[in-house]
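Homework help board

Subject: predicted structure for assignment chain

Our instructor gave us this sequence and asked us to write out the predicted structure in token form, then describe one feature. I got the tokens but I'm not sure how to describe them. Can anyone check?
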Amino acid sequence: MSVSTVVPVFPSPPSLAGQSSAENSFASVQAISEQVQQCSAWTGLLRRELAKAVIGQERLLERLLVGLLTGGHILLEGLPGLAKTLAVKSLAQAVHSDFRRIQFTPDMLPADILGTQIYSPKDTAFEIKKGPIFSSLILADEINRAPAKVQSALLEAMQEKQVTIGETTFRLPDLFLVLATQNPIEQEGTYPLPEAQVDRFMLKVVVNYPSRAQERMILDRVNHTDMAAPIVPVVEPADILAARQVVDTVYMDEKIREYIISLVFATRDPKGFKLEQMENYIETGVSPRATINLKTVARALAFLAGRGFVTPDDVKAAALDVMRHRLRISYEAEAEGISSEDIIKKILDTVPVP
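My token output:
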């Protein structure tokens, strides 16, 4: 079902004098759409700035914008040289906020990220030295190179948006966002992320090779790297935080909410959705965080499209990145070369669309 052919079903608030319920419903969603268009003006400017440095990778850049609009952390997985780090650094340059890059290595300690207490002989007391986590935008580069102890140091920050050092707890910035990268094929000196850590990422975005035309554009631009226009900040944190409030108001019909629930439960009870052939391939279904994130990301995608309502296509567009890292496949699936993405695509093709 294409977005252009979807007719949204609007809510039915109490009628005003002289107006029908349908008229009030349409006016309500239309007002949300107008507010969305006003508050999303900066997204076009941000896309243009990112295009100065990153050629192609439109899906990656769109997902980074979704992270900004929702405050959801993103895990970027792809081979070296596919502009993962460049895209995140470019995003940080285009946002008028503080940014820290943390290069994860096997010899790191949690204190290297969070900070620690340092004894001051002059004051005969311990002072707290904050780590790089106390920034708005965090690039956790090659996050799977650090051991589990270091990766788990991010759990409190990512979930609670706070950090505890000693007996003191500090709040992190309102715009706090972790953008992590990892290489899927390298095995030496890497540590798989714990399940609890992976589940904290709202999206897992797989970055693929550019197209032939995009590869040619990259080739032609190499000689002019020094002449490329610098990326300038085009959006303030206040604009992003205001946009987040608007995203939360984007209308979602009851049928679409039920559609989200059906997609989630199809991973837990395949038989109930006529997917018996998938039952032996699924070890555990997706968590309730997938349900919440499907709603949040679908709303953000509608916002980026300038709409005040969510369509089923928004949910389908969000499903793969929201669910691929939360669906655990069985050994039988691995033996037959079936991935979590294959299962999710089958679910999307089978579950009826409202």
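Reply (TA_rk): Your tokens look well-formed. For the description, you could write something like this. The mean pLDDT is 86. That's the kind of observation they're looking for.
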